[in-house]
Specification:
Layout lengths: L8 E6 L3 H15 L4 E7 L3 E2 L5 H6 L4 H4 L1 E2 H8 L2 E4 L2 E5 L4 E4 L2 E2 L5 E3 L2 E4 L2 E4 L4 E2 L7 H4 L1 E2 L3 H21 L6 E6 L3 H19 L10 E6 L11 H13 L3 E3 L4 E5 L2 E4 L4 E3 L2 E4 L3 E2 L18 E3 L11 E3 L4 E6 L5 E3 L4 H19 L13 E6 L3 E8 L3 E6 L1 H34 L10
Parallel strand pairs: 1-2, 1-11, 2-5, 11-23, 13-20, 14-15, 14-20, 15-16, 22-24
Antiparallel strand pairs: 3-4, 6-7, 7-10, 8-9, 12-21, 17-18, 18-19, 24-25, 26-27, 27-28
């Protein structure tokens, strides 16, 4: 008499960002391929794009369509399942999540509201910009949370240039204010300056590069407040060299159609305003079905990445608040960085695989390998941290090579060494057949 086959464990991952897609890929290869578990990835979009590159999409330095990854294709290649949808609710008692219906561009429902069961749930929905309820921010600012928003910034930029070209005004100017001088704001400012130079080379020269006025506005006393001060100082010096205006100690109190007001009362005129200050997890996570969350909606998790309330639910990446202890016995909160999301995805994959064999979950230990800031084609600055290098500051070509390698490491986690090598070769060849900047 044949024994009934035990049902496969259902592992559901919500969010296909850097952490979610890496986790689904690793689990698919180890558990899904052997049919030891059914791995399901849920995301509101149909494609994945690496968020740290969004500033390049906004400036036009990178064409997002060439670097996006289809979730359906990745699922097929790596033995997991993809379900389109946006998480709306959680029922911990029944171990299920509710998904909103999916609509097309015309508002027609194409996928109805659904319920998805799980045995283990991983929430990796990332973060969005935190405008701190600043008056006028949502109405008069552009944001940089996803590919669509990045492309909107680029389209707005190109339209300003086309309008200036058609007007024939020899003194046309474009004033851009970027609120927030963290890594995103700083890198975007440099990319926009590079874009101005390239646009002039391609004939859109009504706004001369020196007439693109980019102002970085930071509430803290220095730019890049999360990084060592020596890096902040070096980056500010290089921004000054390429003509980026930096204003620190300026908390924004109101955004208007023609500029912004800071708490001191000073008014900064601008034609385009981009919010790049602060993050928060999506609103729906705040206290969802009793899970503990903080003031920016991040779910509180243990060092095992399990939520503090429910051991069957995990959270990682920007939407998780994880406090760990370092070698000196000091507690600290994991920063919302791509390297942290990558490390958490790698650890959680191992942990869920070992749990499938009846073992206890593993504990996450964060290793800070340093930080790198790209200043477009001009330079890069950062520090490397490790047992051999210590805390080593690097800049220039070497820093740029390390910066580029971060994306290649993400690709290797998704595609393996051979396919990543092929992608690198493709990118090198395509540089000779396409313009240096996306012009539409």
């Amino acid at each position: 008499m044949n024994q009934a086959k035990a049902p496969k464990k259902k592992i559901v991952i919500v969010g296909g960002g850097a952490a979610g897609i890496e986790l689904a890929t690793r689990l698919g290869k180890k558990l899904g391929k052997k049919q030891l578990a059914r791995i399901t990835l849920v995301d509101a979009q149909n494609t994945h794009f690496w968020k740290p590159l969004l500033h390049e999409v906004a400036a036009g330095s990178l064409n997002a369509f060439e670097d996006e990854l289809s979730y359906l294709a990745q699922a097929k290649w790596n033995h997991f399942h993809f379900v389109p949808g946006q998480m709306a609710s959680l029922n911990r008692a029944e171990k299920s999540i509710g998904l909103n219906p999916v609509f097309d561009d015309n508002g027609r429902e194409i996928v109805p509201k659904r319920t998805l069961p799980y045995d283990q749930l991983v929430i990796a929905v990332g973060s969005t910009a935190n405008h701190f309820n600043t008056p006028g921010a949502t109405e008069h600012c552009l944001f940089l949370d996803n590919r669509q928003q990045a492309e909107r910034i680029h389209a707005t930029l190109i339209n300003h240039y086309l309008h200036a070209q058609a007007s024939g005004n020899p003194d046309a100017r474009l004033r851009i204010a970027i609120i927030g001088a963290g890594a995103t704001g700083v890198e975007l400012a440099a990319e926009l300056h590079y874009a101005a130079i390239e646009l002039a080379r391609y004939g859109l020269d009504a706004i001369r590069p020196e007439h693109l006025e980019v102002t970085l506005i930071e509430g803290g006393d220095r730019i890049l407040p999360a990084l060592p001060e020596r890096i902040s100082t070096s980056v500010r010096h290089q921004l000054n060299k390429i003509g980026i205006r930096v204003k620190t100690g300026q908390l924004v109190s109101e955004i208007r159609t023609d500029g912004l007001v800071v708490r001191s009362g000073e008014f900064f005129e601008s034609d385009l305003r981009i919010w790049a200050a602060g993050i928060k997890a999506p609103e729906f996570l705040a206290g969802i079905d009793g899970l503990a969350s903080n003031c920016i909606n991040q779910l509180l998790v243990r060092p095992t990445l399990q939520t503090t309330i429910d051991e069957h639910i995990y959270a990682l990446g920007d939407c998780a608040n994880c406090t760990v202890t370092n070698r000196n016995g000091e507690s600290f909160t994991i920063p919302p960085r791509a390297q942290a999301a990558h490390q958490q995805a790698s650890l959680l994959a191992k942990s869920l695989i070992t749990q499938a064999s009846g073992n206890e979950p593993l504990t996450f230990n964060y290793q800070d390998y340093g930080s790198l800031i790209s200043l477009s084609r001009f330079s890069a600055v950062g520090n490397l941290m490790g047992a051999i290098t210590g805390d080593l500051m690097i800049e220039g070509t070497l820093a740029k090579l390390f910066y580029v390698s971060l994306y290649r490491m993400h690709q290797m986690a998704l595609f393996g060494k051979l396919r990543t090598g092929t992608l690198i070769l493709k990118d090198l060849i395509s540089q000779t057949t396409r313009p240096q900047l996306k012009l539409h």
